[in-house]
């Protein structure tokens, strides 16, 4: 019976394109469509699982990729397409079917959902062929190289974008890919990673973008402001002229990335965009952050970044760099947990992990690469729960012992409700409490000199216990994440000397009320 079913599937996947039969090897369903799971905005809005739970198909040509999409039961039937070899114009033709809308000379992921494209074996290279994602959702692209895609000259593909997304795209995770060109617009190339016309909930992670005039953008013009919620982490931007990336409106989170040889401008936040930029390493570069080529300002929150041999233009006209001493001009709330490597190890950890054919290794949050599990892990359906921060908090029912270091210290916060005081969190009185003005906010304990802390106790006021739903504990001096969690209480972490420690409430049920923010050395 199984042999009969397999033969029927193989027959269904044999289709005709330009007069040649296309046969795609069918494999058994896999536990997961990708290695590991996403971190960042791709975990929101229901999560990004790609082809998890569906059939796995092997393809060695672009036509076979299209055939696999077109012969699914429906345009939303989950599928993982394992790709090996070189995909180019000569082997990529249009295939027709009820579950696809493909075109020649481009890998077309249009009006479909629940798909993973995964490079395997000796690697997958899309040579002068771009990947176009349009009116699609829940897409994963992992461990592939896309190179030299042109918009002018010959041959052309995908408007010159290595990976381009447009028109109502949702939930895309691009991971461990290498995107590269051989010049700028005058040589026929455009962007490496572009998002426009209502593209949201995207993560680009552990990837290399290099040797291009344009790294990528969010929004095609100052009026295309329907895009956003994009995370960029552990990426290498190398030898890029500009758009590393360009942000028009929306929210972006950029962390633990290495920017090397940014020749004209880097993170260009404009037209009201908000970027959280933390623990990145900028090296041998120019104007790596600011608002450029427009009078419509954007905004940023910066912390923990290293600027190594970075030059800054003078402010004038439509040139408004954030440097030479970048400071925050907004506050950006991040609704998910994530690991932060210290910025000083970012070049090394990115060198070891980013790009295709690196073994799909990731960082453990302590500057050490980790290998994937022998079998791909199954992404959690719905919103993906990212791996906790550098150390998992250890709530216990018992109160910490020793001296509460918060008593007599200073305190401040990002906002407060009427009638509350920052000092209420360090007065030893459970009947007084601090609240943010909304459902999220930050409260800190600070000292005049560096103080060694290894445990805190966040005590919610009576009637508000359980209101805090997710949080991060930050070393405010460096921006490092000490711990993350979903319930307030006792939190332990490796002993750290700091002058300011911050409890960052990232989501809550109702208005949080923090009665005491206790800190302890032991």
TrEMBL record:
<feature type="compositionally biased region" description="Pro residues">
    <location>
        <begin position="378"/>
        <end position="398"/>
    </location>
</feature>
<keyword id="KW-0624">Polysaccharide degradation</keyword>
<dbReference type="InterPro" id="IPR012334">
    <property type="entry name" value="Pectin_lyas_fold"/>
</dbReference>
<keyword id="KW-0456">Lyase</keyword>
<feature type="region of interest" description="Disordered">
    <location>
        <begin position="356"/>
        <end position="442"/>
    </location>
</feature>
<dbReference type="InterPro" id="IPR008979">
    <property type="entry name" value="Galactose-bd-like_sf"/>
</dbReference>
<feature type="domain" description="Pectate lyase">
    <location>
        <begin position="78"/>
        <end position="288"/>
    </location>
</feature>
<feature type="compositionally biased region" description="Low complexity">
    <location>
        <begin position="399"/>
        <end position="421"/>
    </location>
</feature>
<comment type="similarity">
    <text>Belongs to the polysaccharide lyase 1 family.</text>
</comment>
<keyword id="KW-0119">Carbohydrate metabolism</keyword>
<feature type="compositionally biased region" description="Polar residues">
    <location>
        <begin position="429"/>
        <end position="442"/>
    </location>
</feature>
<dbReference type="InterPro" id="IPR011050">
    <property type="entry name" value="Pectin_lyase_fold/virulence"/>
</dbReference>
<feature type="signal peptide">
    <location>
        <begin position="1"/>
        <end position="33"/>
    </location>
</feature>
<dbReference type="InterPro" id="IPR002022">
    <property type="entry name" value="Pec_lyase"/>
</dbReference>
<protein>
    <submittedName>
        <fullName>Pectate lyase</fullName>
    </submittedName>
</protein>
<keyword id="KW-0964">Secreted</keyword>
<dbReference type="InterPro" id="IPR045032">
    <property type="entry name" value="PEL"/>
</dbReference>
<feature type="compositionally biased region" description="Low complexity">
    <location>
        <begin position="362"/>
        <end position="377"/>
    </location>
</feature>
<dbReference type="GO" id="GO:0016829">
    <property type="term" value="F:lyase activity"/>
</dbReference>
<dbReference type="Pfam" id="PF00544">
    <property type="entry name" value="Pectate_lyase_4"/>
</dbReference>
<keyword id="KW-0732">Signal</keyword>
């Amino acid at each position: 019976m199984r042999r009969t079913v397999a033969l029927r599937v193989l027959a269904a996947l044999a289709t005709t394109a330009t007069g040649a039969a296309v046969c795609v090897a069918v494999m058994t369903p896999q536990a997961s469509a990708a290695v590991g799971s996403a971190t960042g905005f791709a975990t929101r809005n229901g999560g990004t699982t790609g082809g998890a739970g569906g059939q796995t198909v092997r393809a060695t040509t672009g036509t076979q990729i299209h055939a696999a999409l077109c012969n699914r039961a429906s345009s939303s039937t989950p599928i993982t397409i394992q790709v090996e070899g070189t995909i180019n114009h000569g082997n990529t033709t249009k295939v027709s079917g009820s579950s696809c809308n493909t075109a020649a000379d481009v890998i077309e992921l249009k009006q479909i959902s629940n798909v993973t494209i995964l490079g395997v074996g000796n690697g997958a290279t899309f040579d002068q062929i771009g990947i176009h994602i349009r009116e699609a959702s829940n897409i994963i692209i992992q461990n592939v190289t896309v190179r030299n895609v042109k918009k002018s000259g010959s041959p052309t593909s995908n408007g010159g974008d290595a990976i381009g997304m447009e028109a109502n795209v949702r939930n895309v995770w691009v991971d461990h890919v290498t995107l590269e060109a051989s010049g700028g617009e005058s040589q026929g190339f455009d962007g490496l990673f572009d998002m426009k016309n209502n593209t949201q909930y995207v993560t680009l992670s552990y990837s290399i973008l290099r040797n291009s005039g344009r790294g990528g953008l969010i929004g095609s013009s100052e009026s295309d402001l329907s895009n956003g919620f994009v995370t960029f982490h552990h990426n290498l931007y190398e030898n890029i002229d500009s758009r590393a990336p360009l942000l028009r409106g929306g929210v972006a989170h950029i962390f633990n990335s290495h920017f090397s040889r940014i020749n004209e401008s880097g993170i260009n936040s404009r037209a009201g965009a908000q970027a959280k930029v933390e623990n990145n390493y900028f090296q041998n570069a120019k104007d790596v952050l600011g608002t450029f080529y427009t009078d419509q300002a954007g905004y940023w929150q910066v912390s923990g970044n290293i600027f190594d041999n970075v030059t800054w233009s003078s402010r004038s006209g439509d040139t408004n760099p954030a440097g030479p001493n970048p400071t925050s001009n907004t506050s950006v709330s991040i609704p998910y947990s994530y690991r932060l490597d210290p910025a000083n190890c970012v070049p090394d950890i990115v060198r070891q992990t980013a790009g295709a054919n690196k073994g799909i290794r990731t960082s453990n949050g302590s500057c050490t690469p980790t290998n994937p599990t022998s079998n791909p892990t199954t992404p959690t359906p719905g919103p993906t729960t990212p791996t906790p921060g550098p150390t998992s908090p250890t709530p216990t029912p018992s109160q910490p012992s020793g001296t509460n270091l918060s008593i007599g210290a200073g305190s401040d916060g990002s906002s407060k409700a009427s009638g509350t005081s920052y000092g209420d969190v360090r007065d030893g009185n459970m009947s007084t409490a601090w609240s943010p003005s909304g459902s999220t906010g930050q409260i800190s304990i600070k000292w005049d000199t560096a103080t060694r802390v290894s445990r805190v106790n966040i005590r919610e006021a009576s009637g508000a216990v359980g209101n805090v739903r997710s949080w991060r504990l930050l070393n405010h001096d460096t921006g490092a994440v000490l711990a993350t969690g979903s319930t307030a209480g006792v939190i332990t972490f490796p002993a750290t000397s700091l002058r300011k420690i911050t409890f960052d409430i990232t989501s809550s049920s109702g208005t949080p009320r923090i009665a005491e923010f206790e800190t302890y050395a032991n």
